[in-house]
Amino acid sequence: MESDLTKRRPSIIPGCLPGVPAGWTPSVDTVEEDESDKEENEISKSYSSPLLSYLPPITNYETKPYLTIKKFQYENPSSGQTTNMSMAHTHGVCILNTAEEEIIACDYYHNRLLMFDSNTDGRLLEIFRGDLSTPESVTPRPHHRQHIYVTKAHSLLLYDLEKKKVVQQLGTSESGHANNRFNLPRGITVDPTTGEIYMCDTWNHRICVFSPDFRFVNRRWYLTRWEQTQFKVKPSFIAINRNNQCVVTCEDAPNYRGAVYLFDKMGYIQKIYDHDSRKSPNVEAKLNVPHGILLDDEGNWLTVCYSDPESRSVERRSIFQNNEETETINYWRCKEMKGPSGLAIKRDQTLIIGDRDNNSINFFKQKEESKDEATK
C-alpha cells in the first residue's frame, strides 16, 4: 500500500499533458546534433555524469577552505577590458564532466551562470546570460559535456554552454501545478543510466521525474511531515545513486527546520532523518534547513545546513563492525561559512561548497593523514 507521504495523483497517458494535445512537444525545438556534436559527444562519453561511488568521511576534511572564490576579475574577450566582479547569492553549484572539471555556479541575483577554474586559482572563465533569471540549481547532462540542466523561476532549462543559449525549456514564466508547470523549482539531478531528470518542484511540495526529452514519465511524489500529512514541506536539493536510492533535503522554515528523506527512485519512502519525531522510520539528526546533498553508492550522504548558526554539515555513514551494520550521524563545522547551500565534489574528492549568504565558493581538501590512509 502506498504511503500517504508519497501519494500520486491519478495516472495519465505517458507523453500527454493536461490541456495540450497528444504528441505535444516543448515549445523550444529539441536539440539536433550535427557531425561536430556527434564527434564531441563521443569524446565526452568518458566524462559521463558520474554517480558518487564513495564519499569520504567528513571528518577527513580540513575545517578551513584552502581556496575561496569571492571577488574576481573578468576580461572581456572582445574589448579586452577587465572588470572587477562578485556574486550575489551563490545558489547551486556543479562540476562539469570534462577533463578540467570546471565549476558552474548560479549567481542568483545577477541572473547569470558563472564558470570557474577548479584546478589552479579559481579564476573566472566564462559568464552565461540570456533567459537565466534567478537561477536556482544546475547539473551536467550525461554524455554531453556542453549541456547543463538549470532550474530557474518556474522553469526547467537545457542550456548549451558553447552556443550560450537555452536550447530546450519546460515551464513558463508563471507558476502552476500541472505536469509541465512548476512553482520555484530548485534542486535537480540526472540518472546517467536512463537520462531521467529528477527535480525538486519546491513550492509545489513535490518531486517530478522527466525523460531526457522533457516529457513527464508519470512519476512524482509529494513531501509531508511524517504522520502529519496535513503539513507539506518544501524539497530543496536531491541526489541519487546506483542502488535505487534517492535522498531529498526539505524544510518549511520557520515552522519546520527540515529533514533528509530517503526514497527509492519510484518515490516510496524508506527513512527520514530529522529531530521532530522518534517513531519509525525516523532517525534522529540535528538538521537546520538542509540544502545541497551528496549521496554515494553505499548509502552515505552529506548535506549542508543553510540556517545553522554554526554552519554545520551533517553526514550519515554506515559502519560495519563484527559483520553488523551501524548507522552514525556526524557533524562538522566551518566557522568561515555563513549560509552554505550548493554542494559538489570533484574526482579527486575535493569538496566544493557554495556559500549563499557570503556570496562565495569554498574549496576543502582532505587532511594529509587521511589521504595517506586512503592510498594504503
TrEMBL record:
Q: Which GO-annotated molecular functions does the record name?
A: ubiquitin protein ligase activity; zinc ion binding
Q: Which UniProt keywords apply?
A: Repeat
Give me the ranges of the annotated region Disordered: 1-45
Signal peptide bounds: none
Note one Pfam family from the annotation.
Answer: NHL
Q: Where are the NHL repeats?
A: 173-213
Q: Which InterPro entries match?
A: 6-blade_b-propeller_TolB-like (IPR011042), NHL_repeat (IPR001258), TRIM-NHL_E3_ligases (IPR050952)
TM spans (from-to): none
**Compositionally biased region (Acidic residues):** 30-40
Q: Which residues form a coiled coil?
A: none
Classify the source by domain of life.
Eukaryota
What does the record list as GO biological process? proteasome-mediated ubiquitin-dependent protein catabolic process; protein polyubiquitination
Question: What is the name of the protein in this document?
Answer: Tripartite motif-containing protein 2
